[in-house]
Amino acid sequence: MTRLPRPKFINQARALDNVIEQLQDVSLLAIDTESNSMFVYQEQVCLIQLSARRETNGKAHILDFIIDPLAMDDVSALGELFANP
């Protein structure tokens, strides 16, 4: 069985910028969000999980990140990443 690397926890803007840079040229990107919409009028994203596969020299590498958007003032830079098919 292949052992996957532990996800990296991201709770600072500088680290988020680094994640976005790493994910610019991945071949596959999966996104999952968790929110608190059940108990509030306006939904708030509480957690973002990103998993990606990057091909280098014919070998696949898995990148996993858990992002805490509540710990940062602005995560809108993710919009550019999500808009780039």
What does it look like?
This protein has helices at 13-22, 78-83; strands spanning 8-10, 28-35, 45-56, 59-67. The protein has a single domain (8-83), classed as Ribonuclease H-like superfamily/Ribonuclease H (Nucleotidyltransferase, domain 5, 2-Layer Sandwich), CATH 3.30.420. It is an alpha+beta fold. The chain has a four-stranded mixed beta sheet. The chain is globular. The model has no long low-confidence stretch (mean pLDDT 89).
- H and E string: EHEEEH
Count structural domains. Answer: 1
By CATH reckoning, the class would read Alpha Beta
Number of strands: 4
CATH domain fold name: Nucleotidyltransferase, domain 5
What is the end-to-end distance? 31 Å
What is the H level of CATH, i.e. the homologous superfamily?
Ribonuclease H-like superfamily/Ribonuclease H
What's the helical proportion of residues? 10-25%
Average pLDDT works out at 89
Give me the secondary-structure category.
alpha+beta
H/I helix tally: 2
Give me the Rg, rounded: 14 Å
Shape call: globular
What topology emerges from the helices and strands here?
Blueprint: E1 8-10, H1 13-22, E2 28-35, E3 45-56, E4 59-67, H2 78-83
Parallel strand pairs: 1-4
Antiparallel strand pairs: 2-3, 3-4
